[in-house]
Design brief:
heterodimer; A: 11 helices; globular; B: 226 residues; 7 helices; transmembrane helix (chain A); NADH-quinone oxidoreductase subunit H (chain A); ComplexI_Subunit1 (chain A); transmembrane (chain A); NADH_UbQ_OxRdtase_su1/FPO (chain A)
Chain lengths: 317, 226
């Protein structure tokens, strides 16, 4: 273990924790602009978080210890996930420890706990949200795994650091399979982050909410942690998209100068990515919950196609 | 499997591969698209991708007649046919028509199966061919089969015609990737055929609608003496 790798790892984690609420605020701001509304400030998520951290926690009488532990677990899962994705450097101390499949596992762990917490108190909304979340989760996960398998076939490794290394630092090659995988990944990340075609993050309308329904019983610092974890998840997915499909500019060495440049490039990419996400959200209408299997089924099929196209076009038979 | 082999393909070949992949993607998008208007736009995009790939093949191989067919593709499939289709659906007032497609996931699964079959069938063919685009024969074949599938699953007249045109697109792409295109006379003939066919089908639409009060061709399955 060298010192720079440790430094890069810590820096990445800190940047993820700080940047995630800003990214969330940026997406909301872009969305407001695109919809001709006056935008909330960029740091709005921070204000919300600090307000929630200052409030007391109100617990339902029959809330179990799982209900109280879940926010911490979900938050640590998401923080770890954002630390695994190489954003600033491919030389990270976590990268040998956890690969892409472990990352999917981390997301799944967080999902299981948030669903259990949703059902814990026993309100009807909580269990409704949990069931919907599990429906979306079980359809989105295979699609995400197929996307990872495709890029793993290209890089001959499931380690995210090796994948980024292969895509960013070898000779420039166009991989048609990545076009398919990219579309599939975008669809999955919209579904996983409770974005508009699947779920509306701003609504509290009973019949349509998924993510909000599960966390309805949370308050105070628990809610703050879950909100922060949600923006960390968005950040992790955005960084994952950048790492897999636009990895240019992620250095392989972890010296401070390279890290600074990489951080600047990362901010630009995230700003662009957030704008595109807001654009997609503005242009599409929320779909009925029974259309979701169709949407995610399409994502899965696209990911399978990506793998087939890779086998046909890129292995050179 | 050797990952370094892809590096042996020249850049133009890679761009053509990318175009082929986008063709396939558009094929699937058309297969699952319910709206007539979006279907026409997708068809136009497919024509554009076809134009780009033909142009690149023409420029890299120096086949001058391919330049002509690329130009023909641009005029016919990117401008003329979509324009005619747009005008048709406006005059038939089916612009916002939504077709009820049964079970899109099943159709998509069949589509995937077709792609696997096409890739396997095309593999021996592509080994015989000596063009730089031989890897895309499988994709072209898959696009043809997908258009076939679309032809089977649609019941309205306009989407069927679009499926037919998409099939022509895919056949043209297959010809370009397998043998650097057909002779100029054949290509001109096909282009004219498609053009005339489009005009005749446009007249047919009005006749069908007048007869059955709908563009659903299922009505035509029951033919009676009157």
């Amino acid at each position: 273990m060298n010192f720079y790798a440790l430094f890069a790892q810590l820096l990445e984690l800190v940047i993820a924790l700080i940047m995630a609420p800003i990214l969330n605020g940026w997406v909301n701001q872009c969305r407001a602009w695109l919809q001709n509304r006056s935008a909330p400030p960029l740091l709005q998520t921070y204000y919300t978080l600090s307000k929630l951290f200052h409030k007391d926690v109100l617990l339902a009488h029959n809330a179990s210890s799982l209900f109280r532990a879940a926010p911490y677990l979900i938050f640590s899962c998401m923080a770890l996930a954002s630390a695994i994705v190489p954003t600033l450097s491919t030389e990270l101390i976590f990268s040998p420890a956890a690969d892409a499949i472990a990352l999917v596992g981390l997301f799944a762990l967080a999902r299981v706990f948030i669903a259990l917490a949703g059902m814990d108190v026993g309100t009807s909304f909580g269990s409704l949200g949990s069931r919907r979340e599990m429906l979306i989760g079980f359809l989105a996960e295979p699609a995400l795994l197929m996307v990872f398998f495709t890029v793993s076939l290209i890089a001959q490794s499931t380690s995210l650091a090796t994948i980024v290394e292969t895509l960013a630092h070898r000779d420039f090659v166009i991989y048609p399979s990545l076009a398919f995988a990219g579309v599939a990944f975008t669809m999955v990340s919209l579904a996983e982050n409770a974005r508009v075609p699947i779920d509306n993050p701003t609504t509290h309308l009973e019949l349509t909410m998924v993510h909000e329904a599960m966390i309805l019983e949370y308050s105070g610092r628990h809610l703050a942690l879950i909100e922060w974890a949600a923006s960390l998840k968005l950040f992790a997915y955005s960084c994952l998209g950048i790492a897999l499909f636009f990895p240019f500019g992620i250095p392989s060495a972890a010296d401070p100068a390279a890290l600074a440049v990489a951080a600047a490039i990362l901010v630009v990419k995230l700003a662009l990515g957030g704008f595109v996400m807001a654009l997609i959200e503005t242009l599409s209408a929320k779909m009925r919950i029974f259309r979701v299997p169709e949407f995610l089924g399409t994502a899965f099929l696209l990911a399978v196609l990506a793998m087939l196209v890779h086998l046909l076009l890129e292995t050179g038979q | 499997m050797n990952p370094s082999l892809i590096h042996a393909i020249p850049l133009s070949g890679q761009v053509i591969n990318l175009c082929a992949a986008i063709m396939l993607l558009l094929g699937f998008a058309m297969l699952s698209q319910r709206r007539v208007l979006t279907l026409i736009n997708l068809f136009m995009l497919q024509g554009l991708v076809l134009f780009v790939s033909t142009l690149i093949v023409a420029l890299t191989t120096g086949q001058s007649h391919l330049l002509w067919s690329a130009g023909l593709t641009l005029i016919l499939k990117v401008f003329a046919l979509p324009y005619i289709l747009h005008r048709l659906i406006r005059r038939l007032s089916v612009k916002w028509d939504i077709e009820t497609l049964l079970n899109i996931p099943t159709i998509m699964l069949i589509g995937i199966a077709l792609v696997v079959i096409a890739f396997n069938v095309a593999q021996p063919i592509s080994q015989l061919s000596g063009t730089i685009t031989r890897a895309t024969i499988g994709i072209a074949l898959a696009c043809v089969l997908l258009a076939f599938l679309m032809l089977i699953t649609r019941s309205k007249a306009v989407p069927q015609v679009i499926a037919f045109l998409a099939m022509e697109n895919a056949l043209f792409f297959a010809a370009t990737s397998a043998t650097y295109g057909m002779p100029m006379v054949v290509e001109l003939g096909i282009a004219l055929d498609v053009m005339v066919g489009m005009v005749i089908l446009g007249v047919f639409f009005f006749q069908i609608r007048e007869q059955f009060d709908s563009l659903d061709i299922r009505h035509m399955e029951r033919i009676r003496d009157e």
